[in-house]
Amino acid sequence: MVMPEQDYTMTENLSQVIDTIQIGRKTGVLTVQRGEGALFESGMVIFVSGRPVRAQAGYLNSMESLEWLNTWRQCRFAFLPYIPPDLALASSALLPSKSPPSQGLPNPAITGKYPTLPGAQSVGGSNSGFFGSQAGPPSFLQSAPYRIKQVDEAIYIMDQQGFPRLYRRLILLLDGSRTIADLAQLLGQSPDEIYRLVGHLEAAGLVQH
Are 62 and 94 in contact (CB under 8 A)? Predict the structure, then answer.
């Protein structure tokens, strides 16, 4: 694989760059670098109409690479607005357009139930928080939930409690600037599903809205 010479731009938050490409529905190759010498790291994400279809960082698989790159803060990036032929042949939808149902949890879209994860605080009443009804109120699309724990601490707690991988992707995006509607578009889920997932994180003491 030979990439054209590119001019790199500095960013303080790579996840914002990735979000911009997704929201803009752009097609191309994002290459990223950080560190120097023995600490040098690099990665790549291929997008088709804003959807990441392949990611590479070290020896991680595509999904793990995308999650890892979303945690990068200060780094250099360049975006090539097309996919070179050799990459196009290798970029056939290795990342799912929609995440698979959460392992170990009932699918709320089917059961209409909201499971309480291990260690999560119970939420009482039929109208409590995000667990109140099967669909949120009309204004829920514009709510902007946010983390109340640092990312590293939140991910550690989630790992300890057995949260599926989709929740890790979600927690990385919950900075208070993205609405439920934005999150649904970025993660390829329905707004109701995002609303429910945020409810699980809120019950675990990781999120507020």
Answer: yes
